[in-house]
């Protein structure tokens, strides 16, 4: 009997939301045999889980179906628990500040303006390859202090990692290759920054100190990879998913054109309606009873953010895309101690992209069939052809 829900199913990636509704209404606690993971899909259940890291721990891995957790792997903050997670987050917060992000706004706007101008001059193109991908890649490379000429390799390695699939040995091999390439690159770059510090995020990460403690070499590797992959993938897919939503709901885009002050709320609704990160896993540290079922210590639990953000127990008419919706809480960037560190940067980049489109090329449409990215945790696009009236 086929699984109702499998996070790696290509059919699911085409349109997961009808499956999510069935999960919420009929199977609020579902066991996915193919991945050996329990699935939570209702908003309140996911919200409670992310705010109970002592029970729903991250230290045994957050991606389902990717094999056994290896304690010798490079430490990445999203796969850590307190107290080390708390210490690491404090260290990183010293380097990755809101002021550092805000100071980048003029540079981000200049990059976005140039990309939008090129797209408009060409009369269209691929919104993913020509706008949604290069912007965050350049931004995070500039933040870290990585030469821009290396960004295409960076993007390639990042894409290899997120398209890992336990059912596809070739994809798994490519993911390992991408990870190894990133680590080798950052090993050289970190060594160079230790010799010659600069005014960039990587130097700030190297020198950040709390209570006399700094990031270890492995933790620096892990943080660089996390910032690169998360910074690229979240923003790229937020921008491209939003384009599809605006195209499918032209009245909403026209409302933004008529009143650009609606743009921040529109981006927030895009995040809720089609979240770039659909699901991440946790491991139970003790037995718990959920919806009458006992889940044992050591069991994996998948928290489906994409479903939670469409739960009518939390949101009125959640399947209607409404840019003037008031949202008190949502889960596109997770919540609690693992709330996405780069959320302010992703929001800023998306708002800048669409403000530049408003200014230069408000008349654009999707001009062909989008090609969907196939990834367990990530929802996005590989290609999105658009036509632009310039």
Which terms summarize this structure?
390 residues; alpha+beta; Cytochrome p450; 5-stranded mixed beta sheet; 3-stranded antiparallel beta sheet; 16 helices
Explain what you see.
By secondary structure, this protein is of the alpha+beta class. It has one domain: Cytochrome p450 (Orthogonal Bundle). It contains 16 helices and twelve strands. The chain has helices at residues 10-14, 17-26, 43-50, 84-95, 98-103, 105-121, 127-132, 134-144, 151-162, 169-195, 201-207, 217-248, 250-258, 263-273, 305-308, 343-360, and strands at 29-32, 37-40, 56-57, 124-126, 279-284, 288-290, 293-295, 300-304, 364-366, 371-372, 381-383, 385-388. It has a five-stranded mixed beta sheet with strand order 1-2-8-5-3. It has a three-stranded antiparallel beta sheet with strand order 4-12-9. A hairpin with a 4-residue loop joins strand 1 (29-32) and strand 2. The model has no long low-confidence stretch (mean pLDDT 90).
Q: Can you lay out the helices and strands and say which pair or pack?
A:
Elements: H1 10-14, H2 17-26, E1 29-32, E2 37-40, H3 43-50, E3 56-57, H4 84-95, H5 98-103, H6 105-121, E4 124-126, H7 127-132, H8 134-144, H9 151-162, H10 169-195, H11 201-207, H12 217-248, H13 250-258, H14 263-273, E5 279-284, E6 288-290, E7 293-295, E8 300-304, H15 305-308, H16 343-360, E9 364-366, E10 371-372, E11 381-383, E12 385-388
Parallel strand pairs: 2-8
Antiparallel strand pairs: 1-2, 3-5, 4-12, 5-8, 6-7, 9-12, 10-11
